[in-house]
User: Which sequence fits this backbone?
C-alpha cells in the first residue's frame, strides 16, 4: 500500500495525501518455486462398523419405556376421541328431541346422521281442552253426598262401594 500521489507540496512536487494510491490492486508479482507437480490419485475404499451394546438391560428398559409412552399417547388419543363422540351424541340427541336438525342436503347432516333417540320421555309443552258437561240434578245431589271435593265434578268416573254386606 503505497502513497506517493494525491497531493502537492509548496514547490508543486507530487507527495502522498494519506490515502493509498491503488487500494486492492496487485502492485507486482514475484515468482516463487514451490516444487509442486501435477498429481492424480484414484482411491476406492470400503468401511464397515459393528456396534454391540455392552449393557443390554439398559437397552431393554429403553425399549419398554418407549413402548409404554406410545401406549399412553394412544390411550390419550382414544380418550379424547371418546369425549368428542359422547359430546356429539349428547348435543345431537338434545337437538333431535327439540326437533332441530340439519337439512338432508347439508354437508353437516352426516354429523348427527348416526344418532338415534329412543323412548323419549320428554313431552313438549301443550294444552288439553276438557269439555265441560253439566250433571243432572240427581247426579249433583249424589255427587255432593258422596264427596264434597270439587274435583269430583270434573267428570271422572266414580266407584260407589256398598256399605251393606252381601249375604
Assistant:
Amino acid at each position: 500500500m503505497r502513497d506517493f500521489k494525491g497531493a502537492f507540496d509548496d514547490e508543486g512536487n507530487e507527495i502522498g495525501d494519506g490515502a493509498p494510491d491503488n487500494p486492492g490492486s496487485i502492485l507486482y508479482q514475484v515468482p516463487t518455486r514451490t516444487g509442486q507437480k501435477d498429481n492424480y490419485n484414484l482411491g476406492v475404499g470400503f468401511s464397515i462398523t459393528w456396534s454391540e451394546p455392552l449393557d443390554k438391560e439398559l437397552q431393554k428398559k429403553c425399549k419398554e419405556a418407549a413402548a409404554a409412552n406410545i401406549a399412553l399417547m394412544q390411550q390419550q388419543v382414544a380418550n379424547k376421541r371418546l369425549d368428542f363422540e359422547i359430546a356429539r351424541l349428547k348435543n345431537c340427541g338434545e337437538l333431535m328431541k327439540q326437533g332441530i336438525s340439519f337439512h338432508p342436503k347439508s354437508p353437516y347432516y352426516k354429523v348427527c346422521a348416526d344418532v338415534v333417540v329412543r323412548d323419549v320421555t320428554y313431552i313438549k309443552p301443550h294444552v288439553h281442552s276438557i269439555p265441560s258437561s253439566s250433571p243432572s240434578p240427581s247426579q249433583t245431589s249424589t255427587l255432593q253426598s258422596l264427596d264434597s271435593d270439587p274435583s269430583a265434578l270434573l267428570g271422572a268416573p266414580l266407584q260407589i262401594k256398598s256399605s251393606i254386606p252381601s249375604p
Summary: Residues 116 and 148 are 49 Å apart (CA to CA).
